Amino acid sequence: MRALIASSATGGHIYPALAIAEGIKKRDPGAAVLFVGAKWEIGKELVERAGYEQVFIDARGFDRKNPLNNIAALCALARSSGEIKKILRGFRPDAVIGTGGHVAGPVIRLARRAGIRTFIQEQNVIPGMANKLAEKYADRVFIGFEAAAAHFKEKGKLIVSGNPVRAAFAEAAAERDRLREKYGVAASDVCVLIFGGSQGADAINDAAVDAIGRLGGMPGFRFFFITGPQLYGQIRKTLTERFSEDPAGLAVMGYADAIYELYAAADLIVSRAGALTVTEIAASGKASILVPSPNVTNNHQYYNAKALADAGAAVILSEGEIRGGGLASEIERLAEDPETSDAMGRAAHGLAKPDAVKAIVDEIFGN
Fold first, then answer.
1. How many domains, the chain?
2. Exposed/middle/buried for 245, CB within 10 Å: 0-12, 13-18, 19+?
3. What is the pTM (predicted TM-score) of this model?
4. pLDDT surpassing 70 at residue 273
């Protein structure tokens, strides 16, 4: 198998792509997997660390608010067509998989015109524009949530696979007790993992500092706080100014390579509601407090969060509601009601689709 995977470099697109690549290599250890990304994006190191080869094209996203800014994007699209054709001729893929973003669309379109089998994978309840446009060029469309089907036209192409998650999440969940011991979390501790996505989020970071200040010194609370790499220095400065020393039971980090271990060790997750995060929460079987970003297209994070909340697996709070002690109050409420928290975790796990990668890989291999 020779598989070409086109993905934008944000965690929400790259991690599903890496999970699919992992599944392909597990099915066929001799498979050749090549990633296509955009020259101008950050996050390329995620693919490098996973050990896959990658090439880059001159693709850029369109600015819906300022149409004049799209001149550069249109010029880049014209240039990228030649680059993509050259990649397809050189690599000769058996299948091309797109996981979203402005890189995936043109790659899928040109691969289909070249007679190559094409697949797209949509993570969100409300699909991204790139995947909606690429739908007509795809042989199959894998969707993470059943509700996403309403937003695609060609129903016969749809497969409700669930979102692909790296195998490490299920493996870590099975090692919960060992991982709590590894990170110094006592059996009676309430451990809270807080993060704002792969790049961090100011609103969540501010509320986290406040919540840690209110609860961090209380017996029985542990906090894993992932700030995002660009915001780590700022948060460390804020913590130093606010506290003479870090509150007991606090671990602060800019980024976590093995975040699946932190999921497994935690009792409660506080995060944005990106599709991948919501899927990882379900796979890990954890209660969660979700704070959807208000700055995303079609408010899609709210609908991702709602999929968990409607099942009784999550609490949704707005950015306004987590300020002024709001996040601390909700964490404390759930900590004091372990029966509810446990039920939320079970409900989350009930939404998990552990065979998502297999379902996708089966189609790619034509099984």
1. 2
2. exposed
3. 0.87
4. yes
